[in-house]
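Question: Send over one sample?
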Amino acid sequence: MLPADARLRHGDQFRAVMRGGVRAGRRRLVVHLLPGYGERPRAGFVVSKAVGNSVVRHRVIRRLRHLVAARLGTLPEGSALVVRALPPASSATSAELGADLDAALRRLAGRSSSGPPRGRGRPVRTNDGSSA
């Protein structure tokens, strides 16, 4: 179980991580990581109705919460993590979810330290025609 002070609880916290962090997608989940968010690592979960009914969604959340709690100490100090479950997560075993989570965290470990996330789309041009 995640300690209460290690959880993201409010929508603005989730939005900040999902918009400002880096992400890595896998078949069953997408992981968003924002380094330097606070004093200690924090985590939150997004499981939509597309995953399944209430019973299925809560089962997925319990599995993910257990998996993330075991890996919370491996996250960079002060980072925030959001795990978004995709529909295939409903039929996945805990081992499959754990493998996807580990693969996504490994991918993010290299990307989060390489600088700010890259923007999408075309580069911004200044008045003199150079890229900003």
Observations:
- Confidence is low (pLDDT under 50) at residues 114-124.
- Residues 94-112 form the longest helix (19 residues).
- The beta strands are 22-25, 29-34, 42-47, 80-85.
